[in-house]
Amino acid sequence: MTFKRIRPIIIKEFRQIRRDKRSLGVLLVFPAFLVLLIGYALNFDVKHISVAVFDQDKTQSSREFVRSFSNSEYFDFNYSVQSYDEIDKLLDEGKVLVVFVIPTNFSEELLAGRDAKLQILVDGSNSNTATTAIGYSNAIVQAYSMRIALETLARSGKELYVPIDLHPKVWYNPELISAKFLVPGLIGFILMLSSVVSTSLSVVREKERGTMDQMMVSPLKTGEIILGKTISYLIIALVASVLVLLIGYFFFDISIRGSIIWLYVGIFIFLLAALGQGLLISAISHTQQVAFIISVFSTLLPALILSGFVFPIRSMPIALQIISNVTPPKFFLIVIRDVILKGVGPAAFWEQLVYMAIFAAITLSLSTRLLLKKAN
To answer: What pTM was estimated for this model as a whole?
Structure first.
């Protein structure tokens, strides 16, 4: 097996892809477009929560309390209501997510140094957003309460004693921007999907047209044909990965903190695994429709659900945690997040590289053997 023998297959594949504009678009433009689209659409950051306030106290203290929320970018006070009926209507129509009910004796209780009861009504139909809103509310109320306590103690000539002075420091993503967590995972998800689908369809298309049989009876060995096809799609997928990383850098401010060489070692092995899976699907499929369905089913759901892209794997049942070890995106996400976000070296992710290499070796060997068996 020499490059001279594989070279005609590579040239043929590039010519075929160049003539098929749709396939070229799917391979190059589609991944970049999806990263841009989903990167903006899929966002866990919760800001500008629509809020109503039912201020029954109507004093300077109650207005100061409301201002402590309105100074935050997380809350927008859009409504001032006068009754619980109005609250019910706003929550039912989905116009507000949070309602603050300030009691009539709010300022009186504060001035007397007693606990002021405050009611917060939250629309829980979206549990994630509701939980986030409650968390933000608690933080702001705690800060306001601390300020009131300090002022009260200052008037009596005392100082507040805080037993634990906590200073949280967030590493790798200090702004806690969800895009910096999601976009690297999105890169793996999209590269896996586009590589598997395009590769599986290309071989099945050859079989439907009869050109695969012609190549099989040529002097080239089956392994050389598979390798030629793999190299062609591998080069195109690597170009697509560059476009995707550029989209991440320019549109989502995601720079690569670690070694770009190790990043591309990970991408290279991951793409080999994806192409191996695509070739394996093409070896067992007889029509493009069947190959497309198997490709989407075997990549979309595992890459989305079982890779840790959105849902943490450690929170899943044990059975799903075991099944998740079959999908390469799970291991690639660890590599790409380690390199891009943490800036660490291969000592942190060499096991993931080994797994993906084993997966690629198994799928490429199996697909070669199956295609050889059919040719014979």
So the answer is: 0.79
